[in-house]
Design goal:
Layout: H1 3-18, H2 22-35, H3 38-75, H4 81-108
Length: 124
């Protein structure tokens, strides 16, 4: 966020915490613009916004990651190494069988050779 956006965010945050209506917020912003009180007020609002927003973002991210991890572990089935080995072996054997079938079909399928008619002694 640049300074202008962070000021707007902080100002709106402070106004909502104070319970102001949108029209009162607009009037307060117009007053600030006319008086030129951006320097000190903007830095204070920016500090408040980053403190509150940063904590909220961090907490939300941590809660989301923790909940996702717990739900992922809750739905995960226990893994048996022997079962994984069997599945891998079956997969490899299926690949070999498919390759053998392809080779067999390739060998059985030969292009027909052109037959040359032998010369005949008695023309028809």
């Amino acid at each position: 966020m640049d300074d202008r956006q962070s000021f707007k965010f902080g100002f709106l945050l402070e106004c909502t915490q104070a319970g102001l209506t949108p029209s009162e917020m607009e009037a307060g912003l117009d007053t600030l613009i006319k008086q030129g009180l951006f320097g000190d007020t903007a830095s204070k609002l920016f500090d408040v916004a980053t403190g509150v927003g940063g904590l909220g973002l961090a907490a939300g991210g941590l809660l989301g990651a923790g909940a996702g991890y717990m739900l992922g572990n809750a739905t995960e089935q226990p893994i048996d190494p022997e079962e994984v080995k069997k599945r891998e072996m079956i997969s490899v054997l299926q690949q070999y069988a498919a390759q053998a079938r392809r080779n067999s079909q390739r060998i059985q399928y030969r292009q027909p050779q052109a037959r040359v008619k032998p010369p005949s002694l008695f023309p028809v």
